[in-house]
Every structure is written in C-alpha cells, then in structure tokens.
From TrEMBL:
SUPFAM superfamilies: FAD/NAD(P)-binding domain (SSF51905). Keywords: Monooxygenase, Oxidoreductase. Gene3D superfamilies: FAD/NAD(P)-binding domain. It comes from the Bacteria. This is FAD-binding domain-containing protein. The lineage of its organism: Bacteria, Pseudomonadati, Pseudomonadota, Alphaproteobacteria, Hyphomicrobiales. Residues 3-322 form the FAD-binding domain. One of its GO terms (molecular function) is FAD binding. Pfam families: FAD_binding_3 (PF01494).
C-alpha cells in the first residue's frame, strides 16, 4: 500500500515512524523546509510518554527531556493552592517529562528517510485511492493520504470542504525559553484574574515559559511576538519576573489560541490526525500527546485489518473518544481559571487534586 503523509510536524513524523515499524511503505511531504526548527517547549503527561515508548523512543526521550515530578498551582499573589504528585498519579502509565519541541521533532525524525519538500494543492479522493497534485505541477497516485498538516490543514480544506473553521477560544499566548535563573524547580503556574503565567524546567539550565491572557477577537492585532510581557504579567510573576525580563533577548512565539472540533476525520481514502483533526487549547498539554497516540492507533488498525475503510473507521472511533474528552476538559479548565479569583482559588485549594484526577482519568487508560 502506498501511503502519503502530508505534514512533517510531530503528528506526521510519529505516523511515519509507527507505520514504518509496521512494515508499510511511507512517503512524507512538507512545504516548510524549516519545519523542525524553532518552537519552544512541550510538557508531556504520562500518556504521551507512554506513546513515545511504544514507538521505541523511550531511552532517548529520557536522555533528552527533563522530569516533571509535580504540578503546582498558585494564586495571583504566589500562594500555593494545590500541588499534584505526578509520579504518583501517572505511576501505572509513564512519568511526565518536559522537552524542547525541536528535540522531540529530531527524536521522531532520526533514522527515517528525509521528508520531501512539496505542497499539495489538489486532491482527487475515491474509495480506491487518491490522485495528488503538487504546486510544482507533479501528480501522484497513492492508496491513502494522511493529513498531518496542522490546525490550518490544506488536506482538510481539500477533502472536507464542509468542515468548520478553527474557532478562537478567547485567549492569546506567548511561549519562549530562557536560562533558568530562578528558584522554580517544577511545573508551576501563577493564576491571575484574566491571565496566567506558567514555567517548567526543560533541562537543568533552561526554563520554558508560557503566558496567556483573555483578549477580544478585535484586540488580537494589538499583540505580537514583540509585545513587552512584563507590563502584562508582572503583577502575577513572583519568582518569574526575571524570566519575563529575559524574554526581551530571546525568540518569543505569539499565537491566538484556537480549537477545532470535527464530526468526522475520514473521507474515503483521506484520514486526518493530530491538530488537523482535533486541535485544542494547551490547557491539558495534549497536542503532541494525542498526535502521537493517533499515529500509533492508525498504524495498529491498518496493520490489523485487510480493508482500509474498516481500519480508518476503527481508528476514528478509538481516538475520537479521547480527543472529545480533551476538548471537554480543556473547556472546563479554562472556565474554572476565569472564575472570580476567590471562587477559583477555593476550588483549587480544596478540590484541586480531585479535579486533576478527573481531567486525566480517561487518558490513563490504555489505547
């Protein structure tokens, strides 16, 4: 079977590795020659680490990443509301880790055939296969196209023309990495009334910072990679104040947060994975995790079933349950974070552990 993966991000590289390990012939194309460069940091809860271990990457992942032993939630004045022992919660799954996105990309890419540079501009999709047209005029016939090209997927636009557009969730964010010069030694978040500031070490010497705040859609244009962050987040920064000052001297990634909820991920011989199928805000840190899970489940189903249509259907059934769960938990978490501070703080102080356990309960279960 000839399989074409469109998109060489985390989802596409994971799918290629999972399929190659199952003996499939796979080609991957990417329109951005710098796809593996840049990005900031990633938090990988236990289900994501478990998925990477199933891809045979466990030992190298642990060498490249940093342990996340606890998740600590603080109020706007820096007072601890709740602390979750992640080793205890995820002990039957896998330990949580933090890693540079570029390191995870390279880990997934190592030992594989390089992606080809190409942009898909047209797609003829039937129950027997697809005819793909590239921007340079080339055409190609394949048995299956896997759309792994992100939240603004061109494959989705071509194969699912009636699909809804991504939806702005009301928050903008900034991500960056700075030298670790403060006392924060575990995943820690400071929660303000309409904004939050999160830090987690990704190595012994580096700190990943994520900052977000509520913003009307009409105000998105007021912010960018160059926006000074200290005036926006200084009031809740506490020990992270110096990290905000250092943001002036590093690469900062700005984004308006969006979500994508589709009723189906399969159309004949086209299937969507990762953010192309189910992008969600980062509240649950499941973007990379679900993408890698998608890759494993899709490879499992294609290798277990003689009929491609049945394999794709079972993949969708299995993973859509998990993706829909993440969407619901993200919405609940974001709603709770924007409650009046006194109410939110009380909920986290007295019920934070129970909320966390519920949020991740489905994801602890095997694929």
């Amino acid at each position: 079977m000839r399989i074409l993966i469109v998109g060489a991000g985390i989802a596409g590289l994971a799918a290629r590795r999972a399929l190659v390990r199952r003996g499939f012939s796979v080609k991957i194309v990417e329109r951005n020659p710098s796809a593996g460069l840049g990005g900031a940091g990633l938090f990988l809860p236990g289900n994501g680490v478990r998925a990477l271990c199933r891809l045979g990457l466990g030992a190298e992942l642990f060498r490249l990443s940093h342990a996340v032993n606890a998740q600590r939630f603080h109020d706007e004045r820096g007072r601890l509301l709740t602390s979750v022992d992640t080793n205890r919660y995820w002990r039957d799954v896998a330990p949580c880790r933090a890693i540079r996105r570029s390191d995870l990309w390279q880990l997934l890419d190592d030992g594989m055939e390089p992606a080809e540079c190409g942009q898909v501009i047209d797609l003829s999709n039937t129950g027997l296969g697809c005819r793909v047209t590239y921007a340079d005029g080339r055409t190609e016939n394949v048995d299956l196209v896997i759309g792994a090209d992100g939240i603004h997927s061109s494959v989705r636009a071509l194969a699912f023309p009636q699909a809804p557009d991504p939806e702005y969730v009301g928050n903008v964010c900034w991500r960056f990495i700075v030298p670790k010069t403060c006392s924060v030694d575990e995943w820690s978040v400071m929660l303000g009334e309409d904004r939050s500031l999160l830090a987690k070490p990704i190595s012994k010497s580096e700190l990943y910072i994520y900052a977000d705040m509520s913003a009307a859609r009409t105000a998105i244009g007021n912010y960018s990679d160059e926006t000074p962050l200290l005036p926006l987040f200084g009031s809740i920064a506490g020990p992270l104040r110096h990290a905000l000052e250092l943001s002036r001297d590093t690469v900062v990634h700005f984004a308006a947060l969006e979500r994508l909820k589709l009723s189906r991920w399969v159309e004949n011989r086209v299937v969507l994975i990762g953010d192309a199928a189910h992008a969600s805000p980062p509240s649950m840190a499941q973007g990379a995790c679900l993408a890698i899970e998608d890759a494993l489940v899709l490879a499992d189903e294609l290798s277990a079933r003689a009929r491609v249509d049945l394999a794709l259907s079972f993949y969708e059934q299995r993973q859509k349950v998990r993706a829909d769960w993440v969407h619901r938990q993200c919405a609940a978490r974001d709603k709770m974070r924007r409650l009046p501070p006194a109410v939110r703080n009380a909920l986290l102080r007295f019920g934070g552990g129970a909320i966390y356990r519920r949020n991740y309960s489905l994801l602890r279960k095997p694929l």
